[in-house]
Amino acid sequence: xxxxxxxxxxxxxxxxxxxxxxxxxxxxxxxxxxxxxxxxxxxxxxxxxxxxxxxxxxxxxxxxxxxxxxxxxxxxxxxxxxxxxxxxxxxxxxxxxxxxxxxxxxxxxxxxxxxxxxxxxxxxxxxxxxxxxxxxxxxxxxxxxxxxxxxxxxxxxxxxxxxxxxxxxxxxxxxxxxxxxxxxxxxxxxxxxxxxxxxxxxxxxxxxxxxxxxxxxxxxxxxxxxxxxxxxxxxxxxxxxxxxxxxxxxxxxxxxxxxxxxxxxxxxxxxxxxxxxxxxxxxxxxxxxxxxxxxxxxxxxxxxxxxxxxxxxxxxxxxxxxxxxxxxxxxxxxxxxxxxxxxxxxxxxxxxxxxxxxxxxxxxxxxxxxxxxxxxxxxxxxxxxxxxxxxxxxxxxxxxxxxxxxxxxxxxxxxxxxxxxxxxxxxxxx
Length: 430
Prior knowledge:
The chain has helices at residues 12-20, 26-43, 45-55, 69-77, 81-100, 139-151, 168-177, 187-196, 213-222, 247-258, 273-286, 293-302, 312-322, 334-338, 355-360, 396-413, 416-428, and strands at 4-6, 106-112, 115-123, 126-130, 156-161, 181-184, 206-208, 227-228, 236-241, 265-270, 305-308, 326-330, 346-349, 386-394. The chain is of the alpha/beta class.
């Protein structure tokens, strides 16, 4: 069960384990992943089907690879109308959120007289979405990725999910989000197929979505052939709480992270010993009756923790060092704490903002950097599927204003043709 750690006296080994959590040791699995990528690159659908039959469904038929309109209609017929309505509401809230962040058109200004410079945003031509479904179907991942890509105006969006089970909810989420193509293929084969293409699955320009260590290794190995969003592994949350926080709420949020995966992490950081002790008691009490107890218990023992520090300042420093995927701030003045947070994928303020609302209902994106990647990466969003082109317009006066700079620097770099491309215009214009 979950342990309480007095951070100052915690061993370096335990500190390293908690801070690194399920760090994706990609090197260990690259040797297993690369042959499948090579096979898909060389043999296309044949290798994709071999992968599916080895790892997912021994009798899988090639005709089921692409989700058809009949499959979509059957998914709606066989899914609880309340669930369909919930997915529709999710998509609408996600669309509103992403439209607020849409960067469209050109932004520019005059840097010096006669020189206009700016940036213009365009979507990638095609995007491939990866939606895991190993431990449970994740329609939320499908809709949040699909909505972001379509709000960014990506013209062709393809998505892949593992073929085990019907996963009607994933199909409905794809349909509601406007995904153009959906395929039943998971793991390494899905990433390789979207990167290199097969007879059935055309290649894409960018791949986004979470997955296990093999999926993340595959994304890294195909990077360069395609662009990727980021590495995104097992779910995690840090709860930063003071003595006014409710241990019942904290425990429920730790359990919610832990039920994702044996390698998930729910971590409380506090400087109040009573909150630490009561949260531990609540975790042990609330786990009773939960459906995924075995997974939760493994997660609580492996990378989850209750950490006692000496002050709010130390709690903030440790949170920034951890760089969590999700961060809940349960303090008297959460907005003040927010100002001091440097690294977190998605932040939840106050006692009535559990991570679950970000997962399911508020519309914010929950495909986030894990394993400390929040130090370098942002949440997947509209900008994930956009690329920027710099542009500039110069009048003759503008070129004169920059002539001295270009001539001086081109001389330093020994690139005299650069300097001449400026002077020749000013000497020979009509």
